[in-house]
């Protein structure tokens, strides 16, 4: 063996240039690692999905004639960490080169950068060949001396890759159709939501292995995993999305409901795991969606395709830029000095707040919640309740099928908690029950009253919203997008203000019982 090539669990890119040529002198290593199961408590389905996808990838590479070693937790248990494993392999196979693809997580990138190998072994870093924007170009798009806005970045990417453009102008004349994408689901709409494409991958062996190695996981374990674990299933899911969900993707993107069998998926693609494990590339996903749009103009309108494309080439690439240009400091930011404990119900979903019970419960069941549930239900609650962003991050990083730090951290700490003080978003996404009621049907069967702000029946979000605004007045009142909100507060009577504050203080002191 002249070269040992490491493939991490989120580097399952079959189109990588590594695999263009077969070479018996190259040994590929794919390993289930204890350090990866233990840096945070993961959802059981997430670990199963990664391990199943890694194993499948190793088998596909072998079939294509490459030399591959797949190591399970049983094989790697004796190695303290990834560097120990690599060092042992380097000795055993007497390698000349150690090759790895640049990890997308700071933690792993540091670990591999610091890895020392015996004299004579050359360490070489390769690109993952996955993202639209090259790692080395991130500095061009993301200067660190000013705050960044997704919209500016997105327009540049649309132009650069000539996506939905007519010359140098956006198709249809507008860059962004977000305002058209805020419909609530009515009962008649719910009946029309398409059935999701769910797989049935047998992961019982992996579950047994996790138990044998006492890997602590959260959420519901299912021996028949519904997530795609190989390229073929990922492509099927992409085709299913383009055909059945894309026609109404944008329209109901922000909607939430507790009714209907499909309420947990709605018109969302659920492609994030396939993308983040790199089984699919963003270019491939966007091309496929654009193709469907062009072939079916009567079914798929411009706001639908634009809304989808923006998520992939806009938001996804954007948060990655923020992450790499701002780490490691970004992971420590806590603009509001939030320090409250994450309530226990985040781990079991039992709370009288129906929106929270539904969003947390669904996350525990499926390792999935869609964007608005993450941002405006669980995220908003943590923001208003002043939860320590380290704890919020750990929860998000563990629970979701697609959670990898480069994408989880800017979304959680930045977008949802505003702990970066505005690097990523122009104002905190803080909302009272009014928003939840507007975008969902959660409030109608809730124990609390979404309309009232005071008294024990009042929705905690209402008083917590004002408490949050008032306690951070100094930091927020100069924000032009927020100033008006304070005028609303100032107009309320002293008695009303005092009652709202009292209710909020009760809620803050009793978060676990809400
Ligand atoms: P769809 O709604 O179908 O969107 C299509 C794709 O667009 C997604 O698969 C994803 O790749 C991309 N996308 C959409 N929004 C974003 C975004 N804000 N940032 C990056 N990509 C985006 N996404 C993750 O992939 N991993 C995470 O760990 C993660 N953590 C999040 C934490 C919080 C607090 C919030 C508010 C959002 C987070 N997101 C994360 C972004 C987004 O919620 C998920 O990508 C999306 O819900 C995945 O479901 P989907 O594939 O059905 O998405």
Compute the CA-based radius of gyration.
24 Å
Biggest sheet strand order reads: 4-2-1-5-6
The ligands found in this model are: flavin-adenine dinucleotide
Q: For the record, give the distance between the C-alpha atoms at the N and C termini, rounded to a whole number.
A: 60 Å
Global shape: globular
CATH class of the largest domain: Mainly Alpha
- Counting DSSP H or I runs of 4 or more residues, the number of helices is 23
Low-confidence stretches: none
CATH level-3 fold name of the largest domain: Serine Threonine Protein Phosphatase 5, Tetratricopeptide repeat
The total tally of domains equals 3
CATH architectural designation of the largest domain: Alpha Horseshoe
Strand content: 5-15%
- The number of E-state strands comes to 11
Secondary structure category: alpha/beta
Main sheet overview? 5 strands, parallel
Percent in helix: 40-55%
Q: Kindly state the mean pLDDT as a whole number?
A: 96
């Amino acid at each position: 063996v002249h070269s040992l090539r490491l493939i991490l669990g989120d580097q399952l890119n079959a189109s990588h240039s590594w695999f263009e040529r077969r070479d018996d002198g190259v040994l590929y290593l794919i390993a289930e690692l204890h350090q990866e199961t233990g840096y945070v408590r993961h959802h059981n389905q997430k670990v199963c999905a990664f391990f199943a996808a890694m194993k499948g990838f190793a088998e596909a590479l072998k079939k294509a004639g490459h030399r591959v070693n797949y190591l399970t937790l049983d094989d790697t248990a004796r190695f303290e960490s990834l560097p120990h494993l690599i060092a042992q392999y380097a000795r055993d196979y007497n390698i000349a080169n150690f090759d790895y693809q640049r990890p997308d997580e700071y933690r792993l990138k540091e670990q591999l950068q610091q890895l020392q190998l015996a004299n004579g072994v050359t360490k070489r870093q390769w690109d993952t060949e996955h993202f639209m924007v090259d790692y080395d170009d991130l500095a061009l798009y993301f200067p660190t001396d000013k705050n960044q806005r997704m919209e500016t970045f997105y327009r540049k990417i649309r132009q650069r890759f000539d996506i939905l453009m007519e010359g140098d102008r956006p198709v249809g004349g507008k860059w962004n159709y977000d305002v058209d994408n805020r419909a609530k689901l009515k009962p008649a709409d719910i009946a029309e939501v398409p059935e999701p494409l769910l797989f049935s991958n047998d992961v019982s062996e992996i579950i047994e292995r996790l138990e044998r190695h006492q890997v602590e996981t959260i959420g519901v374990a299912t021996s028949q995993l519904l997530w795609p674990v190989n390229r073929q299933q990922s492509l099927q899911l992409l085709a299913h999305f383009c055909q059945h969900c894309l026609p109404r993707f944008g329209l109901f993107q922000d909607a939430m409901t507790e009714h209907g069998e499909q309420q947990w998926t709605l018109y969302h693609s659920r492609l994030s795991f396939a993308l983040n494990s790199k089984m699919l590339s963003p270019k491939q996903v966007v091309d496929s969606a654009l193709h469907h749009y062009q072939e079916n103009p009567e079914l798929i309108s411009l706001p639908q395709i634009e809304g989808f494309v923006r998520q992939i080439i806009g938001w996804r690439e954007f948060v990655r830029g923020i992450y790499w240009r701002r780490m490691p400091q970004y992971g420590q930011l806590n603009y509001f000095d939030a320090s409250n404990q994450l309530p226990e119900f985040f781990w079991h979903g039992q709370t009288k707040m129906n929106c929270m019970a539904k969003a947390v419960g669904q996350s525990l069941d499926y390792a999935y919640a869609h964007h608005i549930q993450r941002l405006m239900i669980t995220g908003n609650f943590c923001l208003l309740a002043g939860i320590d962003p380290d704890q919020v991050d750990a929860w998000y990083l563990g629970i979701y099928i697609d959670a990898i730090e480069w994408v989880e951290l800017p979304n959680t700490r930045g977008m949802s908690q505003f702990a970066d003080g505005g690097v990523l978003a122009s104002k905190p996404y803080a909302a009272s029950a009014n928003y939840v009621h507007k975008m969902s049907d959660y409030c109608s069967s809730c124990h609390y009253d979404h309309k009232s702000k005071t008294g024990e029946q009042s929705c905690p979000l209402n008083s917590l919203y004002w408490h949050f605004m008032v306690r951070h007045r100094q930091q927020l009142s100069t924000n032009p997008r927020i100033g008006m909100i304070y005028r609303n507060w100032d107009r309320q009577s002293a008695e009303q203000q005092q009652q709202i504050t009292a209710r909020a203080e009760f809620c803050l002191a009793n978060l676990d019982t809400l």
